[in-house]
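Q: Here's a chain of 384 amino acids. Please give me its 3D structure as tokens.
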Amino acid sequence: MTDAADLELIRKATRDLARKFDLDYWREKDSKHEYPWEFVKAFAKGGWLGAMIPEEYGGLGLGLTESAVMLHEIGYAGGTGGASAIHFYIFPPGPVIRHGSEEMKKEYLPKIAAGELLMAFGVTEPDAGVDTSRITTKAERKGDKWVVNGTKVWITNAQNAQRILLLTRTSPRDPEKPFAGMTLFFTDLDRDRITVREIEKLGRSCIDSNELFIDNLEIGDEDVVGEVGKGFYYLLDGLNPERICVAMEQIGLGRKALDIAVQYAKDRVIFDRPIGKNQAVAHPLADSWIRLQAAEQIAMKAAELFDNHEQCGPEANSAKFLGAEAGFEACDRAMQTLGGYSYAKEYHVERLWRESRLLKIAPISQAMVLNYVSDKILGLPKSY
């Protein structure tokens, strides 16, 4: 694990790079619904896209701790647009890194690290939602190929991605072992067999979200990640890091909104005094600072556990919950502090507020985090 001094160097290097793309850049990308390729290429040039990819496959060989620090700085600099563009090089390759064949890793990981290969993450389905055990996208064995049919939704990057990490059912769902019988493929996003339809949405408009309609997609055995039937368990190597990453992104985003609000509270004079002199303005901002600090501590603890190959589910879920709450609340309080000006796009707070709201429902809802803690940690009867 990187020591404190080196971690601070990583923080500074990624902060300096991320802040070369200012809030006006992100406002324009959001307004025009343009993918931030300039930003991605800058991080590719710096080698940061391969942060968690081992050095023998062209990456930096760093851990989730270092990546989380980087994504915090990106979230602070630009919000979830920049963070989402980069984090798809961080956690989605995890199952390939840990469970893919040597041939798969040699072929694709260097391309991901260099920014030459954009991937999508195909898990969520319209009728399954958070109950991943009930996905219906099916891969059937026909001769020497797997043939896949089904539908996925909320798939990021599919407008431009060349490959997709795709979760399918290869065996019927067994109520006694509901997460068994799923297989993970890392395969071409073949547009002759996959129809991609973009979803218009509230925020993070520079990063596409899509529905996928898969019709007789043929996949060879070389694209199977690990063993057939164990895909869900491999996916966990991507899900816990995702929760940690988005927590740190949201914390960074919340801190940006908080800093904008604090500066405005110092500068805005009403009734011959800065509004920040009023406790009704100052105390909510102070409270948000405290909550963002606390959320960062649990997120970094979760990242450390993951890097040490220890169980981190409780901490990862707690980080996502606290980060989502603290980040959105900071943005909401920034909206209140700026008053009418918060609605003006030139002040940037409205975009941060829109983007921050997403993290209360994705990649897992706050309610499902509480269900997880109730059942798995407290041992209470399962409610669903």
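Q: Can you summarize the key feature?
A: The chain is about 50% helix and 15% strand.
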